[in-house]
Specification:
The chain is an alpha+beta fold. It has 5 helices and 7 strands, in the order βαααβββαβαββ. A 7-stranded mixed sheet has the order 1-2-3-4-5-7-6. The longest helix is centred in the first third of the chain and has 15 residues. The radius of gyration is 14 Å and the shape is globular.
Length: 152
């Protein structure tokens, strides 16, 4: 049951969408911009130079996360999700490690993210990796009430 991190494969696209919709529906609602991204993963995330990572356990998608290009020096860590049955196995750490390695390989200076203070486990993870709270910039999500950055 060794976790395997892989990069985006089209056959896993629906897993990315479904895992993210699950946590969004549990804690918030799926917002219009979420659906816009889900419907256009290639143009929003992949084609501009971003990446989606998947964590597989026994060939089953256990988790996922996206790195979305903001500009040449900044990427956004977005849509981090781990399936309920795999939570507690520290898979989010493996996904975070992949995002940071990806950013460093692209000579990115800053990884930013938007979150919500209600998501205490997520915020703890981000803080553990060195993300710090910064002033909120205008964004597309009503649920976002905290912005964090990691300087590389």
């Amino acid at each position: 049951m060794k976790p395997l991190i892989i990069t985006y494969q089209p056959e896993y696209k629906n897993h990315f969408i479904n895992l993210n919709k699950a946590w969004l529906e549990e804690f918030f609602v799926v917002e219009p911009h979420d659906n816009e991204v889900f419907d256009n993963i290639e143009s929003y995330i992949l084609e501009p130079g971003g990446m989606i990572f998947f964590c597989l356990i026994n060939n089953e998608v256990a988790g996922t996360v996206a790195m979305q290009k903001v500009n040449t020096t900044t990427y956004e860590l977005a849509k981090l999700a781990v399936a309920k049955k795999f939570q507690g196995l520290k898979l989010s750490n493996l996904l975070m490690d992949s995002c940071i390695a990806f950013a460093k390989a692209k000579n990115v200076e800053t990884i930013m993210l938007l979150s919500n203070r209600k998501l205490q486990n997520a915020l703890h993870l981000y803080e553990k990796y060195g993300f710090i709270e910064v002033p909120m910039k205008e964004n597309d999500y009503t649920r976002a009430d905290i912005q964090m950055e990691l300087k590389l």
